[in-house]
Amino acid sequence: MLTQCLACGSPSLIHDVQVPDQDHSIAPGPLMLRKDGSPKAFLFKDKRTTPILAIVCRDCGYAHFFAANPAKLDITSPESEFDATQAWRCETCGEINSNTFGVCANCQAPNPNPPAPGDRGWL
Ligand SMILES: [Zn+2]
Ligand SMILES: [Zn+2]
């Protein structure tokens, strides 16, 4: 963790300063960093997000920005908010589909383990 200001060297740092996203007037939240594991996917982009936090120097005001949870943005890591038990990957095109889909949302290839009609979540 940062112990002194990168600009002036002061140890007087204010930690955990939030960075609100002013564009979301209806539901204000933190400014987010986002990386998509499957940016070309039609539906399930395997979206990884984490809030930005700032550490501000009390003396010179220099703001140091950090990802709250940088590991979440690592698309090479299996960790994801995406629940693999709730989805299947299309063997034809690689699209990640909800397991409520009988066919791939991208290429219409059949789900190798199609949901039984009447399952909860069947659309
Ligand atoms: Zn400073
Ligand atoms: Zn497909």
Could you describe the 3D structure shown?
With 123 residues, the chain is mostly beta strands. The protein folds into 2 domains: 13-75, no CATH class; 83-123, SH3 type barrels, CATH 2.30.30. 0% of the residues lie in helices and 27% in strands. The protein contains no helices and 6 strands. The chain has strands at residues 13-18, 32-36, 47-57, 63-67, 87-89, 96-98. Strands 1, 2, 3 and 4 form a 4-stranded antiparallel β-sheet that branches. It has a two-stranded antiparallel ribbon with strand order 5-6. A hairpin with a 6-residue loop joins strand 5 and strand 6. It starts with 12 loop residues before the first strand and ends in a 25-residue tail after the last strand. The chain binds zinc ion (ZN) (2 copies). One zinc ion is lined by residues 5, 7-8, 10, 57, 59-60, 62.
Summarize the model shown.
The chain is mostly beta strands. Helices cover 0% and strands 27% of the residues.
* Multimeric status of the protein: single chain
Which residue ranges are poorly predicted, with pLDDT under 50 across at least 5 consecutive positions?
none
Per the principal axes of the C-alpha atoms, what is the gross shape? elongated
| Rg on CA atoms, Å | 21 Å
